[in-house]
Design brief:
Layout: E1 6-7, H1 18-24, H2 26-29, H3 40-59, E2 68-71, H4 74-85, E3 93-97, H5 102-113, E4 117-121, H6 131-137, E5 142-146, H7 160-171, E6 179-183, H8 195-198, E7 202-206, E8 217-221, H9 236-239, H10 247-285, E9 289-291, E10 302-307, H11 312-321, E11 324-325, H12 341-345, H13 350-354, E12 356-360, H14 367-386, H15 389-395
Parallel strand pairs: 1-11, 3-4, 3-5, 5-6, 6-7
Antiparallel strand pairs: 2-8, 7-8, 9-10, 10-12
Amino acid sequence: MTKRKVYLDHSATTYVRKEVIEAMMPYFSDIYGNASSFHQYGQESKKALTQSRETFAKLINAEYSDEIIFTSCGTESDNIAIKGVLPANHGRHIITTQIEHHAILYTCQYLEKKGYKVDYLSTDSAGKVNLQEIKNIITDETVIISIMHANNEIGTIEPIAEIGQMLREINKTRKNPVLFHTDAVQTAGKIKLDVQKLGVDLLSVSAHKFYGPKGVGALYVKKGTKIEPLFQGGHHENNLKPGTENIAGIVGMTKALELANNEISEENQKIYGLRNKLKDGILSKIPEITINTNTDESVSNVLSVSFNYIEGESLLLMLDMEGIAVSTGSACASGSTEPSHVLKAIGASPLASQGTIRFSLGKQNTAEDIDYVLEVLPRVVDRVRQMSPVWNSKFEK
């Protein structure tokens, strides 16, 4: 079979859609004023900023447009959400999970060094948190709970709406309400976000995960939420994100989410089908594997597979030589020699974790792409295993 190029790392980043680029172009050349300037040039940019904020708010069903804060990325949104609410509210207790993105985990570890107490929720073997455990560890000192909408490594969708409803009931009897944040970086564009139904006070997204530009994100902050800026220097973004706004990026992100929301049903149906084809093919062609993604309770495009007795980095590099781009987990954790914290949390063995590959599909993938992967992958896995002393010692006669 002729070598082709197949990109299966859409959870790390996506290409920018042509329609998004076209929407952005005028703001690089013709409409370039600073949105804070009062002259005509500035007011043209201000108009685009205002329209984007209003549209983005509608896309996630926010009640007010000024609940949308434009940021530089999902990581910044997460940091503003967590660090911003702590000094503005009573208490020094944070609740999160063991499987969060490092944007949350590293932030919480930093805050522990500053004297905050953090509880890290466990999960079941599918990566889901338990509502009763959350309820049991809430104290009078709890300020915020941060639980990702869907996991970036295995794709598991968390019961955010159920947690939101539980917190609404709990907060009825509390003097200081527990705030609720979700990192929705991996669900924006795949699940139609509705902050009202989810019951969250804060929600983070990043444009480059749904065919928008890199370097722009957003944070939903429910009106009335007490929060302080991380930086000083300007009045921008409701005083939470000082600095001249990235108008082109904001316009592009809004366009990307609008397009994605309009196509969610059709795209999910297509990508579910391709992922199932990939999963079934791997199961039928390759022995000694573990499927880490519960495909009934995950976003449509992620499939995490552990190929036992091999090293994932070697498999990744050999697949890359065949034109197939995948990941060993989160792009933000690449270079780490430690087993995935997500796989450890769901009970995967360290040996299996070392041989884990994350396939994440996207818009341009086709059935022919999957056929090619299923042609190449078995022989590449076999080649890597033949070089593995663990594999050879297991099967030597």
